[in-house]
What does this fold into?
Amino acid sequence: MSRFHAPSQRLLIGSLGALVLVLFVASLLIGYAPLDVGGALSDLIHGRDTLGALVLLQLRLPRALLGAAVGFSLGLTGAAMQGLMRNPLADPGIVGVSGAAALGAVLAFYSGLANVFALALPLGGLAGAAIATALLLALARNGTGTSLLILAGVALNSLAGALTALALNLSPSPYATLEIVFWLMGSLADRSLDHVALALPFMALGWVLMLRIGHGLDALTLGEDTAASMGISLKGLRLSATGGAAAAVGASVAVAGAIGFVGLVVPHLLRPLVGHRPGRLLLASGFGGAALTLAADCAVRLAPIRPELKLGVVTALIGAPFFLALLWRLRREAE
Amino acid sequence: MSIPRRRIPSLVLAVAGLVAASTAAPAQAPVAKPQRIVSLNLCADELLVHLADRDAIASLTYLARDARGSTVAREAAGIPINHGLAEEIVPLKPDLVIAGVFTTRNTVSLLKKLGVPLLEIGIAHSPEEAAAQIRTVAERIGEPARGERLASDLLADFARLPPVPANRPTAVVVRPNGFTAGGGSMVDAVMTRAGLDNIAGRNPADRMGQLSVEQIVIARPDVLITDAEPGAPPSLAQEVLRHPALAAMPARKISVPGRLWACAGPELAQAAAILAAGAREAKP
It folds into this structure.
């Protein structure tokens, strides 16, 4: 088994963590206006109220924090869903969980509910993601056939997309209809610390729920009966994964829109490095997702395209060909 | 000038600008006053309400009734409305249709084919162009005296503004979605007359570019002008205006509703007065 060639878990997590740290700092350094980051940081530490400190604290920091946290959520959720459904194509974007989360967030935001009660935004995203995840699990018990999973994703994505467009069209704001691009493709532009404070607690809750199920996912690779005989509560496992995915993806989408393919590409790239054990893949995928999202967000700011590209455009450019290649290989294996 | 699609919502307000009205109608002398005038453009709506007899207006756009964007919402309440669709316009048998050069193009081309008398108005870039446009429209609808009064009042209001100081405070306009008003625009002209130095005006690339919050903060303007409407329905576009980084900026903040300076009309002087008051209080 390739497990023997895989690097130790500690080394892998350490290097991925270091990569995330480097990209996080890069994200702080990259911006639209020249900024002496060192000076701004010292101003910030000494409590001096300068313009540089303002830009660093209120603009660059929330962007980098959200990039890392949203990426971590998507990577981790991809790994958890793939482990639970025992299917390498279960990505929150592809199966429609992100789309449903966007619908929930759109309803909370454009109805004005989020203005009255700020938590309505992440809660709306969470509710949408939870309904979609529960629906998928109900459809896809006992190990999921790839075609059923993809078809369910097509159905959920179309429905959520159509309802999102409908909600935006009915909104009284003249800007709403154009904002569908944000909800379908995602972006971290001009986000604030308020968004971080709103989403991070829900994401962290989701991370805890999903990171707890590593052992159960490992056991599940042996089949449900064997896993149950090892004392794994399948119901508890499903509940943890569903709740965790809903909280993490729901909160992510509520503040950053639906960023696709991170949860597909990252677990797939890292799987050989963790000896194909879904339990070990969880944390590694989280860090990998954070790294990919931060890198993509640096890329949209560095690319000479204004207004800046939506984040989901970059991740789809990387992820969609990857998805096709993956389908191609699955087809060959089936033959 | 190409107009990216995403700009269109702000154009819904700004659209009708008008300048040197390119008269598309055949050069027949307006013998009789038009009696069934239809407007396909918000700025034309406002001018008609100011200039035409109410009985002569057959239809205004639905935008005219929305107090958030229209300066004549109250007056427009009893007048029939249209949504810029040819099927609504033709049965009205208009003897004059006023349209903006950038809006409802399909309807306009159809009306041209049907030979409906048409006046197209462009975008005014200065109070003088606005006055010229007011006169053009007034002339065409057979109310030259009213047009002359409105135009000369507008110019007189601008002439009464305090003299522009040599050392003008810097300013930048932030609209929903982070759009700003660049050099050459009406907003830029009004700011200059009010004694402000539009930072975005120094960038010659664009008349209505988008700025990121970061660029706005780093530009260190003395005055930050937003058109945040307190009652605006929620949208991501409006969220930009409420970003904590903008609130924390040391600049003086002025709010000017977009409807005041989106069209050639008497409200331009009102916008200039608000800005001039803000400019006096801001230290350059």
Q: What stands out?
A: The longest helix of chain A spans residues 51-85. The radius of gyration of chain A is 20 Å.
